[in-house]
Amino acid sequence: MTEEVPKEVEEHPELGKLERKVALAAAMILTSGHRQPGVRGWELRRRLGKNYEKVLEALDSRLRRVGLKIKSVQEEGSDDPDRTRYYVVISEPLALYDLGTMGYSMDEVAILAVTLAFLFTNNDRAPYKQVVELLESKYPKWRVESVLERLTRRGYLMRTEDDSLVVGWRSKVEVDRQELLRAITALSSPETSQRAQEEDASRE
Known about the structure:
The protein is mostly helical. It has helices at residues 7-11, 13-30, 41-48, 52-63, 106-120, 128-135, 141-153, 169-174, 177-188, 190-203; strands at residues 39-40, 68-73, 85-90, 125-127, 157-159, 164-167.
């Protein structure tokens, strides 16, 4: 028994070809064999053709129906689409407090938030020693170094050969930088500080 051809594919043969490419793109992104998830633009172009970005648009449209989306992250210092890495992520950006439900302590979430905010305002990198000194005002040095090491292993941060910390691939994919900076700014505003002091006083 031959497989029935859907009416829309029969009427529009190109749609069948597009659907196959969409399925292939999804497989490439979701089952990447690289150490780092996702797939680069040149890999997609090689398998899907020069119009691979159109295929990604079609895939993104389908993923959004189930709360996912395609996210692209450019390599540092490059705006070449072929060197862009594409991921499938949840539609809503990950809030850092959500990490508390993923096996991270509040200290680790706080250290990540402060570190990322510092890196985001310094072209995504800073000397490792400088970051540690910044965090030492709140946490013991051993704790800071231990957390930074774990966050580096998990891909949220990356330590370079010149002993700098840079924003890791996972932070680029999962964290909304504008939302984080907005939250940090709000916490440091005089109004927020005064409100926090009033709340503390009311508890006494």
